[in-house]
């Protein structure tokens, strides 16, 4: 039964996710086509011959284009997150919830399906959007430097390898911790974020009126609470970091410490809210 639920949930979310990826991909292709087109070459070749005013206008237009593209990516990510929240609420606590909650599965298993599927799709979406953005940056850089794209990638790889070898000799342990932290933030972060959002919406459904609005307010409250806890942790780390700097014992591990604490706070809130959600669905379900 769980396998069928995973398949159905993933397939349903993939419709919106696939549409947003397709839209983002088309816009990225258009931007990439401009970067490799003669129009961009003309701008690069003539930029040195332009007046100061025209150069400034060109730079501003370029910056505006970049900001617009980044805003599009942020909008796609934010819109997809909203879609996941709305879909979860409708499928669990609205009219559709009557059917969902009568399925022959445990409440915790049902929540696991919802959280895991949504988090996996959020991870996929984030990786794709980051990939689009990095691709455009690399194409624009290669065109600006008048280098072959693949030759530039080879140079970047060699430079990266040199930097890693240089820092690895003195910061072997710190680099491993930093790499692990990045992987955790990328692959574990979405699961914590989805669990927090779904848990907040589940608490909100206890209200007799305006359940969706209550869930949103609970979510905002959770984010504020996480911010307060993270702020206290940041102060503590800043004090420790200042002391280590004065002693000459600062390290990358210490610099990454506050990010690790932030991730641990998100995971802790996500786990607690997940079990609270399971308890509510099992014992205090209040469908509209």
Folded structure, characterized:
The chain is mainly α and about 290 residues long. The protein has helices at about 1-35, 40-45, 50-95, 95-100, 105-145, 150-170, 170-185, 190-205, 210-245, 250-285. Helix 7 (about 170-185) runs parallel beside helix 10 and helix 8 packs antiparallel against helix 9. The longest helix is centred in the first third of the chain and has 42 residues, at about 50-95. The two termini are about 25 Å apart.
Gyration radius, rounded: 24 Å
Distance between the termini: 26 Å
Shape verdict: globular
What is the total tally of β strands? 0
- What percentage of amino acids are in beta strands? under 5%
| Quaternary structure | single chain
Biggest sheet layout: none
| Structure annotation, total helices | 10
Total number of distinct structural domains: 2
What is the H-and-E element order? HHHHHHHHHH
Overview features:
single chain; 288 residues; mainly alpha; 2 domains; 0% strand; globular
Short description:
Helix content is 88%, strand content 0%.
Task: Tell me the layout of helices and strands.
Elements: H1 2-35, H2 38-46, H3 52-93, H4 95-100, H5 107-144, H6 149-170, H7 172-187, H8 189-204, H9 211-247, H10 252-283
Helix pairs in contact: 1-3, 1-5, 3-5, 3-8, 5-8, 7-10, 8-9, 8-10, 9-10
């Amino acid at each position: 039964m769980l396998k069928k639920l995973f398949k159905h949930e993933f397939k349903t979310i993939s419709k919106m996710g696939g549409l947003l990826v397709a839209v983002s991909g088309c816009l990225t292709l258009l931007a990439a086509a401009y970067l490799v087109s003669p129009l961009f070459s003309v701008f690069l070749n003539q930029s040195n011959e332009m007046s100061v005013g025209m150069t400034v206008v060109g730079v501003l237009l370029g910056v505006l284009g970049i900001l617009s593209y980044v805003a599009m990516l942020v909008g796609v990510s934010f819109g997809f997150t909203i879609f996941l929240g709305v879909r979860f609420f409708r499928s669990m606590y609205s009219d559709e919830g009557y059917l969902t909650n009568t399925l022959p599965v445990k409440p915790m298993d049902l929540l696991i399906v919802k959280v895991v599927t949504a988090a996996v799709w959020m991870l996929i979406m984030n990786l794709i959007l980051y990939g689009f953005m990095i691709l455009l940056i690399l194409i624009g850089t290669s065109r600006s430097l008048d280098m072959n794209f693949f030759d530039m990638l080879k140079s970047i790889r060699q430079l990266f390898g040199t930097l890693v070898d240089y820092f690895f000799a003195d910061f072997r342990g710190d680099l491993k911790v930093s790499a692990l932290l990045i992987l955790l933030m990328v692959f574990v972060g979405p699961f914590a974020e989805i669990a927090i959002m779904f848990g907040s919406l589940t608490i909100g459904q206890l209200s007799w009126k305006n359940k969706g609005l209550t869930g949103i307010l609970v979510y905002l409250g959770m984010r504020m609470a996480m911010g307060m806890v993270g702020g206290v942790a940041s102060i503590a780390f800043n004090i420790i970091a200042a002391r280590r700097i004065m002693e000459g014992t600062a390290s990358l591990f210490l610099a990454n410490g506050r990010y690790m604490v932030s991730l641990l706070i998100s995971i802790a809130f996500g786990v607690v809210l997940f079990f609270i959600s399971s308890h509510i669905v099992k014992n205090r379900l209040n469908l509209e």
